[in-house]
UniProtKB/TrEMBL annotation:
It is found in: Cytoplasm. GO terms for biological process: tRNA threonylcarbamoyladenosine modification. Substrate binds at T132, V133, S134, G135, G136, D165, G178, D182, N273. It comes from the Bacteria. Residues 22-307 form the Gcp-like domain. InterPro entries: ATPase_NBD (IPR043129), Gcp-like_dom (IPR000905), KAE1/TsaD (IPR017861), Peptidase_M22_CS (IPR017860), TsaD (IPR022450). This is tRNA N6-adenosine threonylcarbamoyltransferase. It comes from Pedobacter insulae. It catalyses: L-threonylcarbamoyladenylate + adenosine(37) in tRNA = N(6)-L-threonylcarbamoyladenosine(37) in tRNA + AMP + H(+). CDD domains: ASKHA_NBD_TsaD_bac.
Amino acid sequence: SVILAIESSCDETSVAICNNGKITANVIANQTIHENYGGVIPELASRVHQQNIVPTIQQALINAKVNKKDVNAVAFTQGPGLLGALLVGVSFAKSFALALNLPLIAVNHMQAHILAHFIDEPKPAFPFLCLTVSGGHTQIVLVKSYFDMEIVGETLDDAAGEAFDKTAKLLNLPYPGGPLIDKHAQSGNPVAFKFPVPQIQDLNYSFSGFKTAILYFIRDKQKENPLFIEQNLADICASVQHSIVSILMNKLKRAAKQYNCKEIAIAGGVSANSGLRNTLIEARDSMGWNVYIPAFEYCTDNAAMIAIAGYHKFLAGDFVGQDISPMARMNF
Ligand code: ATP
Ligand code: MG
Ligand code: FE
């Protein structure tokens, strides 16, 4: 089977091809326009998707060395995400499928982040726990099979990626700041500064109080010394990253114990974070877990994860009709 997959939920226009379960193309057109605004501007994202979608499709077909007449099904991100951005991908997928008389496959973006683990070896065994940490979500998911997933804990307010990005903004770093915090953290002291750990029940998270604590911390320090940020950038980044990773890991360890599960995965943009990746590897050794860490290219948004999810829906015969619409919010 040849599945063509489209991702357009936020600010990446991406198209991938999955040929008999193998990813043979994964083209990602990043949108740089948002850097000037310190965050994604939805209306601009939609317009850039509109410009990028056709050339991205063409490049993916070239990379995979397939003709559009060889495609067997079209998979697309139905949600969650920015409605206008999703609409570009969904409309294109519907037109492409209509023109070539192909079946349509609707994919949940958050399930796809998790299913990215089924692109390459080693693949996790069911049931496994996945900490999905991205720009808009922070969830601990019990994955029972490809499409039977249960959220057992999640953030009550901000996502972990937002905590990274908003801290970066306070430090005058450009959007998206997560990767830059990671970079500066490499040369800093992770215990130079201490931040309060949110006291939240069960397996849930909260990052809004944490974010405010960092805002006040930086504001107060800058009052004493206007060069505080410049002089301590690496230590601030390392300490913030260390705190976020500790918060994430505490609940993940609790979930592993509660569900008596040693198959542990991470997914989403923040799973590219070196602090989180290293801490998970330490936990593999100290907790006896089998850990699954995605390749960097499959952490942040990409269509390969939509394609592999689409492939498994294709095998299950799970198709949708031309009346399908995008959903800004979407449950599993
Ligand atoms: P969602 O998947 O929740 O809809 P999204 O698709 O916008 O949100 P992703 O593309 O999965 O999110 O992830 C983007 C987030 O990952 C951003 O917040 C970014 O700062 C963060 N991120 C990427 N690389 C790193 C890194 N190395 N360290 C920390 N954060 C990172
Ligand atoms: Mg993005
Ligand atoms: Fe995402």
